[in-house]
Amino acid sequence: MSKPSAVDVESKVLAPLIAKPGRGFWIAVSLLGGVFFWGLLAWGWQIKNGLRVTGLNAPVFWGIYLVNFVFFIGISHAGTLISSILRIAETEWRRPFTRAAEAITVFSLPFGASSVIVDLGRPDRLLNVILYPHFTSPILWDVLCITTYLATSCLYFYLALIPDIALCRDRLSSAVGPVRRWLYEMLALGWTGTKVQWKTLHKIMGGMSVFLFALVISVHTNVSFVFGLTTKPGWHTAVIGPYFVVGAIYSGVATVIVAMIAIRKLFHLETYLTEDHFNRIGKFLLALCCFWFYFTCVEFLTVFYGRETAHMAVFNAKFFGEYAWLFWTMFTCCFIIPLPVLAIRRLRTIANLVWLGIVINIGMWLERYSIIVPSGARPYLSWEIGRYTPSWVECSITAAWFSGFCLLFLVFTRVFPILTVWEINEESAAGKTNLPAG
Amino acid sequence: MEIKDQNRRDFLKWFGAAVGGVWAFTSRAFAARGEDEQVQARGKHRWGMVIDLDRCTGCQACVVACSVENNQMLGGPEEAALGRVIRWLKILPRTEAEGSHIRQSLVPMPCQQCEDPPCTRVCPTSATFMNPEGIVGQVYDRCIGCRYCVNACPYTCKFFNWGEPQWPKETQTPFNPDVSVRYKGVVEKCLFCHQRLQRAKDKAREEGRKIEEGDYVTACQAACPAQAIVFGDLNDPESEVSRLALSHRSFKMLEELGTKPKVIYLREG
């Protein structure tokens, strides 16, 4: 297939920014906005009445708010992984995915972080964490890690956007209204694409890639520490750190694939997001799937072989007890279905990857649920066995957070180029001359 | 070249200042910790409790006394069904089976007042802490309600106010004025009737003497008709609680977790 020229890329990628959004777009926006608004109302109701409106109780003190927290922070790692780690490794096929992946990072982090705030009994006292910090608390480490991560990934996202914003400024000034013209003008920071500017940009992005690589590992390990550092059966395991990191990247890459296939279809970008790109990212997903399976086996074999009473109670609840349907659905979604689809070349098609990405994400959400809730329901001492069913408030807020995430992403695709134009141009340049790009 | 040197010197200066600042801050934090340990070594009080399971009849008088003394929510059947009623002292049913012989025993469980508490370690705001006399406290006004300490407690002896606690009108007048009434969204726990320690200390000071054995009695101890609960100073080798703690019948709950509880049980004989 012939490589597209730079001008083609620009006109094709910038087209959605000037095209009038169709009826479908407005329906989607109002639907997602409606769900999000409903969730905010539910949160208001919870603030007024306290956490009694949730399904939480003693001993299941943490529920789906914490599941959402881990899930959203988890999918945020895909962005960093694809755009920074694969950038360091100079992987060419990453290029069309970087922008969407970084957008997923930036848009999912606020929802992850706010899930914890929703979970607090006294969200009004959030600042106490900074006013009276207690350095031995993993929650404080989390606050530090996640705020650093949010700030850094926003900056990284923005830096990679600058050349494309400048492109919008130059190409779209006559096609868009004065507000957006002003927005592009201001955000482009006077980028003209001189040699010095490119050199500086690549230097900063290279340095930040390395920093983000370290950050992504530490952020999700810290998220796991919230559970792993207590002595609670089912949580207290050293493998939980790497297990969480792999799970995070797994669900994140699946999210990026789903988002990119949707974008490819909606904006007719088949030329730039080729079957080959999806084949390669599919293989990458296969590797993550195997890693995830490996960690799951290690974790449960260790528990099963050790036979400690309290740990076995959680194990039995997951494998055979009231959480069995949840656990086995999770296992099916995360391993049994994805493995053949990803491993067999004939099945690794774009059409299959769409639903598979969604299935993997459902599985990974259930995975977090099956880590957090059963351990709560089986405490060390034989108090009454805990039961937990999420209430309508918890479900509404969860739905709202997912809608809010989609909404931000959707609006973004209409305002900024969803493919990194300069990265794609570099890819075609690299393809022609075989020079290492970036 | 000159400019570069200047930059480096500036960088080193700032870097040095930053490292120094962090060092000063952390060393202060550790120094404060050291002070705590010194106080402990100097032989201050270390309050502890011994519960003799052989004497306990499971009558729950201690549970009632504890709730009344500490202004605990009354709670309705719905809250009870959801596991949301707060009782700082609860009776834990235990079933022990040996072959065909099954024995049901009842264990009164207040906060175990760990010497190395897992709950204080994880609190992000120091809202839960150990005071110099070994009592694990809770600052309601600082608690953000994250419930991390509740999850970290292996005994499930910390409690969360899921909603605004409710009392019927009739039970509101006789609130214990020495104990603050909690509100929605914070964690609470057994404090070894800390208010009674304050009173005992005040009384001893008025009378110009040191606090003695028997001055400080917890509500559960006072209410126990079988005298199964003994309370006192574990740092005083003469106290009854110290003597009983050395009994061959004594054990601690989940001792293998290394929390070093200051509530000690005496096995049924």
The helical percent of chain A reads: over 70%
Range of strand content of chain A = under 5%
Q: Work out the largest interface and the residue count of each chain.
A: A-B, 45 and 45 residues
Low-confidence stretches of chain B: 38-42
How would you briefly describe this protein structure?
With 438 residues, chain A is mostly helical. Chain A has helices at 6-18, 23-49, 64-88, 98-119, 128-131, 138-172, 178-187, 195-228, 240-266, 275-306, 309-319, 324-336, 338-343, 350-377, 392-415, 421-433.
Question: Can you describe what's shown?
Answer:
The complex is a heterodimer of chains A (438) and B (269). By secondary structure, chain A is mainly alpha-helical. Chain A is 74% helix and 0% strand. Chain A contains 16 helices and no strands. Chain A has helices spanning 6-18, 23-49, 64-88, 98-119, 128-131, 138-172, 178-187, 195-228, 240-266, 275-306, 309-319, 324-336, 338-343, 350-377, 392-415, 421-433. In chain A, α3 runs antiparallel to α4 and α3 runs antiparallel to α8. Chain A is globular, with a radius of gyration of 23 Å. The two termini of chain A are 23 Å apart. Mean pLDDT of chain A is 89; it is low at 432-438. Chain B folds into 2 domains: 1-42; 46-266, Alpha-Beta Plaits (2-Layer Sandwich). The radius of gyration of chain B is 23 Å and the shape is globular. Chain B is α+β, with helices and mostly antiparallel strands. The longest helix of chain B is centred in the N-terminal third of the chain and has 40 residues, at 2-41.
